[in-house]
Amino acid sequence: MKILFLPFSIVAGLIAGLIGKQAFEAIWGLIDDEEPPDSEHREISVPKMLIAVGLQGAIFAMVRKLVDHHARRAFQGAFGVWPGEERPEPE
Question: N or C, fewer C-beta in 10 Å, the chain?
Answer without folding.
Answer: C
